[in-house]
Amino acid sequence: MITVTTVKEMQQITENLKQQGKKIGFVPTMGFLHEGHMSLVNKSVEQSDVTVMSIFVNPLQFGPGEDFDRYPRDIDRDKKLAEESGVDILFNPVVKELYPAEPSVTVKAVTRSDVLCGASRPGHFDGVVTVLSILFNIVSPDKSFFGQKDAQQAAIVDGLVKSLHFSTEIITVETVREEDGLAKSSRNVYLNDKERKEAPAIYQALKNSSNIYIKSGKERAVEMFKKHISSLNGELDYIEILTYPELQEPKDSDHRLIAAAAVRFERARLIDNIIFTTEEV
Amino acid sequence: MITVTTVKEMQQITENLKQQGKKIGFVPTMGFLHEGHMSLVNKSVEQSDVTVMSIFVNPLQFGPGEDFDRYPRDIDRDKKLAEESGVDILFNPVVKELYPAEPSVTVKAVTRSDVLCGASRPGHFDGVVTVLSILFNIVSPDKSFFGQKDAQQAAIVDGLVKSLHFSTEIITVETVREEDGLAKSSRNVYLNDKERKEAPAIYQALKNSSNIYIKSGKERAVEMFKKHISSLNGELDYIEILTYPELQEPKDSDHRLIAAAAVRFERARLIDNIIFTTEEV
């Protein structure tokens, strides 16, 4: 594995790979890697000639008072994990490389962004689509791999690529979970023991609620989710059931849906979701 | 010259050219070609292996009540001129090809866009940077050629490429003028005889004002411009003197400036500009 830190070197490598006809798989991350990221790398290695991973904690997608400064970082451990999992090129630029000056042009998620996590994080997804546009331009991936855990992000990235005609294909990979069902996340390290024991209830409650939705509709499903979560120390940020990937209020004719929730614990805000269908396909 | 109308075919051609190591020059236009466009093609032919021209009247950069529907179009004449001037590939998609649905993600010019033409055309430059991002993604040009006549556009495109790290180099080409000094423009066909005789005064007044600026400062330069233009039937939209390419109010320490103006005639709004320095370099 080679580590690249400058835009210029990364672009030269990309251009050479293209000229050789190599297919580039891309796994963009903010580092502090866990098995969720590794599952993205596995898919990329299966489907590509060369796998590029980026590690870049993107200041543009953190709001004021959010956890940019204390977002967990461990680049030495990350490098080891990336190499072991089959990454060929690690792109790890400093902030000034991607943003040498205040951007005079940015990218804006105009739909799918004002619900779920977007409702409480204004501008977050604008930061996500801006940095992904930059990374797509530098890495020129044939395929890019995203986790289903960040379902809203996956839906918005789908819109980014279709709207701006990036030539990368978006592959969404199933959420990797702990044995007790908790979705893997870099932020899980901030849970204390009690919270860690409570956290799998989010996934359980989502599963129950999607079943209740099918039988009894949205109001009852949301109510049961809230009841299930109310016994935890964590505080419910949102529970929503929407169409996927459009993230609209479901009508009777909509059958592909997402149940998504966010719960705030003392030092970590956890998200999870289930995508389900309301009839046999 | 071949004509391409679909995104898919254009992307395949681009990918093949890249694999062959060919350098792509790109001239994006809205058609109704004139010598200004031809001068961009000439530069591209000089500096590239393959020249791609796009002709696409972009609805996103026209505001409500602007001239999208009656923007002049003559594709047969354009094809002839493009081929004669050395274009290898003409990309001429319909609106539904670039915008198959309402875009869920767009690009936004956050600086340099609220002065000059941007002041009276809110959202115009957002439409410009969105369609250019799409075209850059489809054409993957090594160099892209823009006219200095659209100086604010050139400044914003410079910001687009630097902010989002597009790998294309922006080449700005000097304004082509009629013998009497009027800048070539697709909209000149809408001038009546009297207006056509008056229109070169815009360039004359810009030249005078830049000289007056150097001797006597901005206030006097703007005043003289207004006086010069007041005798015309055309109505002054704006006259501004700003730094270039940042488009900020000039301070004593700023020496690279632009004097830019827009004048509304009955059926055409004309723009022109001069870039000048306030001291010997």
What would you say this structure looks like, in words?
- The structure is a homodimer of 281-residue chains.
- By secondary structure, chain A is α/β, with parallel strands linked by helices.
- Chain A contains 10 helices and 10 strands.
- Chain A has helices at 7-19, 35-47, 75-85, 95-98, 116-120, 124-139, 151-164, 193-198, 201-216, 218-230, and strands at residues 2-4, 24-29, 50-55, 89-91, 105-109, 143-147, 169-173, 235-243, 256-264, 269-277.
- In chain A, the strands form 2 sheets. A 6-stranded parallel β-sheet of chain A has the order 1-4-3-2-6-7, with helices on both faces. Chain A has a 3-stranded antiparallel β-sheet with strand order 8-9-10.
- In chain A, helix 6 crosses helix 7 and helix 9 (201-216) packs antiparallel against helix 10 (218-230).
- Chains A, B: Its main location: cytoplasm.
- Chains A, B: It catalyses: (R)-pantoate + beta-alanine + ATP = (R)-pantothenate + AMP + diphosphate + H(+).
- Chains A, B: Keywords: ATP-binding, Cytoplasm, Ligase, Nucleotide-binding, Pantothenate biosynthesis.
* Residue share in β-strands of chain A: 15-25%
Shape of chain A: globular
- Separate helix tally of chain A: 10
Question: Which chain pair has the greatest contact?
Answer: A-B, 35 and 35 residues
Task: Let me know the number of strands of chain A.
Answer: 10
CATH-derived topology of the largest domain in chain A = Rossmann fold
- Please bin the fraction of helical residues of chain A: 25-40%
Oligomer: homodimer
Structural class of chain A: alpha/beta
Catalytic activity (chains A, B): (R)-pantoate + beta-alanine + ATP = (R)-pantothenate + AMP + diphosphate + H(+)
Protein name (chains A, B): Pantothenate synthetase
Main location (chains A, B): cytoplasm
GO molecular function (chains A, B): ATP binding; pantoate-beta-alanine ligase activity
